[in-house]
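Checked the freezer inventory, then went back to the computational side. Two predictions to log before the end of the day. The first one is the construct we discussed on Monday; recording sequence and tokens without edits.
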Amino acid sequence: MDEEYDVIVLGTGLTECILSGLLSVEGKKVLHIDRNDYYGGESASLNLSQLYRKFRSGAEPPSELGKDRDYNIDLIPKFMMANGELVRILTHTDVTKYLEFKQISGSFVYRDGKISKVPASEMEAVRSPLMGLFEKRRAKKFFEYMQNWREDDPSTHQGLDINTVPMSAVYEKFGLEPGTQDFIGHAMALYLDDSYLTRTARESYDRIILYITSVARYGKSPYIYPLYGLGELPQGFARLSAIYGGTYMLDKPVDEIVYDANGKVCGVRSGDEIAKTKQVIGDPSYFHDKVRKVGKVVRAICLLKHPIPNTDDVDSIQLVIPQNQVNRKHDIYIASVSATHNVCAKGYYLAIVSTIVETDKPEEEIKPGLDLLGPCVEKFINVTDLDEPIEDGSKDQVFISRSYDATSHFGTVCKDVKSIYKRATGQDLVLKQRPKQEEEFAE
């Protein structure tokens, strides 16, 4: 370990592994350390024994649940948008060759006490119970406007400049009802709360178009998910880094971050060994003095013996409960996958319910989500802090990632990757499209 590196990366969360992969490919000498004996950090997928060790203080899992190897349970549930930034990073780096993906079968929304499918086609929209006949016409005009809008063609703007007007003004123009606004803003644009209504409509436009184009890519839903769980993603980038000379050390304690006389980072100490470096990138758990807490997320990992009721018995779904439907300030998300994704034993389903904590009783806050699951075989509650770095890292060359939030997709993770990349290298992360890989990915 007593060598000099360009970058030392602490923690093998997805953000850290993507960055070590990208920097290794660019010829940087990277050392990657994790105090855990498994990849993924906060974004790991655990087997049954690991899960019980973490949440049941070492108790043995019941034998009827099956074998350890049948389980890859995500600590943090997120799906990938088929046309999203993470897919572009995967294709840009060719990490797709280490992974297999399966589509998530449906996207659902909770409204007026019922679960309804978010329409994935015009036919579904016509039959959807989410809107009455006249509202469907108004919504159709709204979606046509969104899909036909072109920055450089004022005739498509219909008198609205979406770069300056708030999203609420666009809804108003098309006369959309609050319930319709809810499902567009929360189940399609995937906002956690309603603050987006006062921000410029361009941001919502980009998110809605991403959703629509992602659905168009494979039909059914906009989401895809890696077989064997999300823990496969950091491992894929770790393999990429290793191919380009990156060094990995798991189960290695980090005892001290070493700084020079000017306060710049110059090394990382583990026991008696010090590895020298010019920069350090890491997750918040390695830097308690350099991060601030901005909130908490509660997640319930539930093991079921049935698909989630009222969702057409499909093998996987995303279900959004918009805040307004349950008198909250933040949405509740349910992500469900099953044995077909190689994440649990045959006959079992995995549902993870999550939200941003608003009170001192986190478990009660996800009750509306838990109530929709039917009987649970097992339930593990996990409340984690949301941390963000206090400084940008330019002074001490220590670049810290943000905690994984309650969003159900990887948009915020990719934003963080791009931000750290730019701060650490001084350059924007440019993702090139590789047509050949794009085609392979779709097969």
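The second is the one RB wanted added to the comparison set:
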Amino acid sequence: MNKTVVPSIASLERHWYVVDAENKCLGRLASEVAQVLRGKNKPTFTPHLDAGDFVIVINAEKVKVTGNKSSQKVYRRHSGRPGGMKVETFSALQGRIPERIVETAIKGMLPHNALGRQLFRKLKVYKGTEHPHAAQLPKPLELNPAATLK
């Protein structure tokens, strides 16, 4: 008789990975990081469980986009008040809060439910090369070479 084996939360190994976003294409970087956060790179992947790893993204201010997206792509946020819509271009947001660009791209590729919110907490994005997670001994995450822009 065949039985489906569901891994327990205690049996899952969590690793820490560090990704350098310098000269990486935003969407390709985000899709690979989202897969690692979700745990799709592991043989024990289960759709309804948080089986993924922690990911640290450094050099968020050096991420690239192709074409005219730097001047045409807009990020919207709303205060919740009437007339509270704020619109900002990619280049303006990159100069002000570059971490938000990477976080928004990755968050959009995670499930839009409680599981996705739990997975998003395992993402750490930093401007520059310094991060406070050296004690976790993060390993470099190898991305697809197509993610790098010249």
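For RB: Residues 26-38 form the longest helix (13 residues). Residues 13-64+98-142 form a domain with the Ribosomal Protein L13p; Chain: A; fold (CATH 3.90.1180.10). Let me know if you want it refolded.
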